[in-house]
Amino acid sequence: MIRRLKLALVLLSVLLSIVVNPALSAEQQPVDSPQAFLVTYAPGALYYERFGHNAIWLKNPATGVDHIFNFGFFDFNQPNFLSRFLRGDTLYFSAARKPEIEFAEYRVAGRSISLQKLNLDSAQLWKLERHLIAQIQPGSRDYRYEYFRNNCSTRIRDALDLVLQDELKQSLIGQPSNYTLREQIHIAAEADPWLYLGMDLAMGPSLDRPQSQWQAAFIPAVLSTAVESVHGLVAERTVYYQGQAAVVRHQPLWYLFIVGTAIALLFVLLVRPWRQQGCNRSCRILAFTWLGLCSLVGMFLLWLWLATSHVDAAGNWNILLLNPLYLPAILYLRNKPAGMFWLAMQILVSTLLAALGGWWNNQVMFAPLMFLTPIMLVVMAFLWRARNADTAI
User: How, if at all, do strands 35-41 and 234-241 pair?
Assistant: First the structure.
């Protein structure tokens, strides 16, 4: 009986070791083994934070690495920063920071932090670590930033695809995105109607073409969702910090239309076209001033198209909406007989050609049209009102 009891105890201890030891090793895994996490940060309040951010957190006790690797840093004090930004030649740089420093900044800003533990084997983790460390070295840390194709998110995407031997790209390239690039920008910028309008004005029809999930992963939140489509890549997902920052939502198209209409009404109140005396002169001055401003903006859009590296500014039909020829037309026609009539016709034709051209070339132009159309109609009415008084200003 005693021998049987001892044998039973031995068997029980063996069974317990089989059950308990794996559980203990699993608990010890995060501490003793290399790990990689995709870190995704919620959008912030500043205009360059509107689209969120992501990074890779590597933890490797064997090499002493416990850092978050980022590809989204820039320096406003960089020589010629503004001119380089306008030319599409902005330099960003890569950096690694300790998690307690980085996470503290995002917590102070109230931006949520989510972690996705990546299920990579030891060889893949080692390759990822070597690649990320190489990217932060002085000779290779700087890179030419391109908003849709070479940003903080696409560089993380490419690093993961490197260690997965093209598996991530093959998984995403064949999946159509639910949104075009412009629609993704609209979603991210809907809390700021002026950013919404500015990006719509500056970008051409290339933003409205269908795209794959691989291309759409320039948005950090899209990449966070996309990695989960690769079977077995994400071991677990956790919310490291739940931010309290409120996301303000607007209806930017209606907002822009209301503001454009308010500006148009302000113009009417300023010149008081129902009064005969002085109306012709004031109508002309205000119309010329507005068209001159539009012409300067149009020249800027033309410069973006022809003289910079902003490839997505090419073919922009907003150039007709903000016609660079308005200014020379004013200088030529202002003292001509029927000059005001022909200026009004130029506005009408340019606006119609812009809308028809955008439709024909599949360029979404709702925001510029809704903001500018009420103002352009009033300016046309002013020119029509002043058409019979072609006196010099």
Answer: unpaired
Q: How many CA atoms lie within 13 A of 227 on its CB side?
A: 32
Domains and CATH numbers, the chain: 31-177+212-241 (3.90.1720), 252-385 (no CATH)
Strand partners, 66: 59
| Confidence bin at 29 (pLDDT 50/70/90) | very low
36: its two tokens: 């990689």
Q: Which residue, chain included where needed, has tokens 């850092």?
A: 67
pTM for this model (two decimals): 0.81
Alpha-carbon separation of residue 7 from 2, 18, 159 (angstroms): 9, 17, 55
Q: Classify residue 136 by its DSSP letter.
A: T
Mention every residue, 6+ apart, whose C-beta is less than 8 A from residue 181. Answer: 148, 206, 207, 208, 209, 211, 215, 216, 218, 312
Beta bridge partners of 239: 114
Average pLDDT score over residue span 124-134: 95
* CA distances for 319 relative to 66, 295, 316, 364, angstroms: 50, 9, 6, 14
DSSP symbol at 61: T
